[in-house]
Design brief:
The chain is an all-alpha fold and about 55 residues long. Helix content is about 80%, strand content about 0%. The protein is built from one helix and no strands.
């Protein structure tokens, strides 16, 4: 992981790199969370469907 030092002016370029990396990391994390939620949601729907059919 890149080291973000916002106090050092010479690190301006690193700062930009840093925020890009952070944004990508956050997007990946959010994407995975959404995918997991979606899968769980679909599984629940499937299970409910089976239960309804069984009764």
């Amino acid at each position: 992981m890149l080291n973000c030092d916002h106090t050092n002016p010479s690190n301006q370029f690193l700062d930009v790199q840093c925020s890009i990396v952070w944004e990508q990391t956050l997007q990946l994390l959010l994407g995975n969370v959404m995918k997991t939620h979606l899968l769980l949601f679909l599984e629940n729907k499937k299970m409910r469907g089976k239960m309804l059919r069984n009764t």
